[in-house]
Amino acid sequence: MGFLTMSTPPVLHKVTGTCGSYEPDCIGDTQKALLYTALPLLAIGTAGHTVSLPSFLEEQISNVILNLTPRVCLADFFGSFAAFAIGCFAVMGLAYIKPWSLRFGIPAIIILVATLIFLTRSCSYVYVGPQGSHLATVFKVLMAATSKLFRRLPADDKELHGMSDLAKPRTTGLRCLDKAAIVLPDQSVEEQQKTWKLWTISEVEATKFIISLIPMSMSFVFFGLVSSLGYTFFVEQGKHMNRKVGKLTVPLTIFWWFCDQASSYFPKVFSCFFSLVCRKNAQERAPIAGIMMSMLLGILCSITAAKVESRRLDVVKSHGLLDKPDETIPMTVFWLLPQFLLLGALNGMYDMSLQSYYSYYISPTMFKYMLQIGRIGESLGFVGGIVAVYV
């Protein structure tokens, strides 16, 4: 955020010898370099925050729950209130700040203060050592199967390593991976396990299941593509629409607040409704039904946005504003509210259904890895949404 703040023309215009106004001619090579440096740093920071924060909170909160005191409850209350207040300020306050140097600078200062507060408590945090990566086991099974690619599977399945401990029937697909459980005759079992050449059939079956879920996870590109519309086309739609409510100018960021509320409450309403309608095997069917509902919401969101855009263009044509791109369109910006609500409901249902599906069908140890694979599919959709802007 610091580099992003310095990339604005007023901050370094005296050093770079450029003008300090927000004009294209005032943006020099230094500002561009700072901007292009800030963007990947933001992406890396966001990725690290997304991956590390849930695990960190789980480690800290598990200890707090066991030692719950009035002081801890009071600290949690004030922490939640501070987070809510900062969120409200970000939605409402920053929208009315015109200079981009302040819009970027204020969050940069807040992040710096938060980092310092976090570091001051570093000695009191609960530390849990590395537990090993189950995802690494998947790659090791693939390597072991590849090293035995030209070996034939034994005629008797009982000769595979760990076959007697297998609780579930073997899957019929991806039989080539079963070669990772072939015991080589020229080495002891212990030596093969130390060199990652031998794995139990249970570990092989877990690897098969994870690989079989990857194509389904890639289908989540659709959700990412629709979600990206909120950051591109939806914002562009409302940029020149009438944002006046009386004498008050409504910031576009208020629609993201509505989007977040729909994301929080719609999944809860859907879960209550589904549990009433489907009393038999509700836990098993709910994730699939939730994913189907997410797809339906995505379709409705896209249709609604298209209808609103069609109406917006009709208003532009009827008022002769085709050659006046900077003029305010006499159409209230609250026409965008339904599509933002549908977008929020889509995001909430997708997150809830994805977590429910993986938590029900895979082991807890592999849950977070499969969740990230689903996120990869969603991220590809976001990239597709960015490319679609240029179409």
Automatic annotation (TrEMBL):
Kindly state one GO CC term assigned in the UniProt record.
membrane
This chain's source organism reads Oldenlandia corymbosa var. corymbosa
Q: Which InterPro entries match?
A: MFS_trans_sf (IPR036259), POT_fam (IPR000109)
Look up keyword Ribonucleoprotein and say if it applies.
no
Q: What PANTHER family does the record tag this protein with?
A: OLIGOPEPTIDE TRANSPORTER-RELATED (PTHR11654)
User: Subcellular location, in the record's words?
Assistant: Membrane
Chief subcellular location equals membrane
Gene3D superfamilies to which the protein is assigned, alphabetical = MFS general substrate transporter like domains
Entries under Pfam families matching the protein: PTR2
Q: Which family does it belong to?
A: Belongs to the major facilitator superfamily. Proton-dependent oligopeptide transporter (POT/PTR) (TC 2.A.17) family. Belongs to the major facilitator superfamily. Phosphate:H(+) symporter (TC 2.A.1.9) family.
Q: Would you tell me the protein name for this molecule?
A: OLC1v1033737C2
- The lineage's top-level taxon is Eukaryota
Q: Which GO terms describe its molecular function?
A: transmembrane transporter activity
Arranged from A to Z, the UniProt key words for this protein are:
Membrane, Transmembrane, Transmembrane helix
Taxonomic lineage from the root: Eukaryota, Viridiplantae, Streptophyta, Embryophyta, Tracheophyta
Q: What membrane topology was assigned to this protein in its record? A: Multi-pass membrane protein
Whether Transmembrane counts among this entry's keywords is yes
